[in-house]
Amino acid sequence: MKTTFEEAYAIFNRPFFKLLKIAHDIHAQNFDEQTVQISDIISVKTGGCSEDCAYCAQSARNGAKAPKQPMLDLETVVNAAKKAKEIGASRFCMSASGRCISSEEEFDKICETIKAVKALGLETCVTLGFLTETQVKKLKEAGLDYYNHNIDSSREFYKNVATTRTIDDRLKTIELVQNAGINACAGGIVGMGETNEDRVKMLVLLANLCPPPRCVPINKLVKIPGTKVDDSNPIDDFDFVRLIATARVLMPKSYVKIAAGRNTLSEPTQALCIFAGANALFSGEKLLTVDNMKEGSDKRFFDKLGIKIERPNLD
Ligand code: SAM
Ligand code: SF4
């Protein structure tokens, strides 16, 4: 049965501790609540993007303009994946700037890289923008575990996020990927000027996918000077925790991931998120073009909470 916005918004607005209790109980019924899944991410191709995503350092259409870097070679990516494994990551994510990968040679290189990273005993995730059916087939054959494609916000707010693509374009790619038997990793960004209603509407869109994404990253906007949203109001910490808890209730079997911007949340706020059902994190020192966690800080944080790290689930 489909979740309605009214139902989801009522969950989001429950008294704070009641919401946390419901979300925590659902979490404990579906996962080991003392375990989190860790990913690390690398930008395999950076900058020069023709899309106009309002938040992104890599769009050539706004004032941020992250330095351009062509596709990395296989050895560089595999070395980064080995380091990710050393910090306890079970999944290695590879991100490319751009609307899509239009060069067959580049795409085939990415598929070879996926195989090499998988051979290290890591789950793989790539985020490459829009895909053709042939490309989806190649990713499946390469053994890809997750494809990341965020819907970023609500249908209503999307015009403020990007004009060079629509939220339906994004939803279609997620469907293509899921139909091929690849896990979808799909979430969004908060803190771009959207309302709590928009945030919950975004979760409802995700929860009503068949199936809901296996992984739902919630990114807290990392403000990049020169982008269209660099002066937007940040999300209130309690609203962030409420959103995580609502995601857990609406998508009981999905990994709910605190993705970008985690380094701007205090440890107690992160702990509340984990209690409310967040069970996946990015733990590397870099998130594409921006800084992430300081070396060793997550290990100390997990020790304080008695948290264990999940091992890779490989086919
Ligand atoms: N080009 C591909 C695409 O658009 O799908 C993949 C790369 S894109 C950088 C990956 C995701 O990172 C975006 O969908 C967005 O959700 C997230 N992201 C990018 N910049 C961000 C920022 N400044 N703050 C938070 N999340 C961000
Ligand atoms: Fe380009 Fe992806 Fe950034 Fe949008 S999010 S500007 S498509 S790199």
Description:
The protein is an alpha/beta fold and 315 residues long. The chain has one domain (5-309): Aldolase class I (TIM Barrel), CATH 3.20.20.70. Helices cover 37% and strands 16% of the residues. It has ten helices and twelve strands. Strands 1, 2, 3, 4, 5, 6, 7, 8, 9 and 12 form a ten-stranded parallel sheet that branches. Strand 1, helix 3 and strand 2 form a beta-alpha-beta unit. Helix 1 (5-12) crosses helix 7 (196-207) and helix 8 (237-250) packs parallel to helix 9. The longest helix is centred in the N-terminal third of the chain and has 15 residues, at 16-30. The radius of gyration is 18 Å and the shape is globular. The model has no long low-confidence stretch (mean pLDDT 95). S-adenosylmethionine binds at residues 55-56, 58, 95, 97-98, 127, 129, 149-150, 152, 189, 219, 221-222, 224, 260-261, 288.
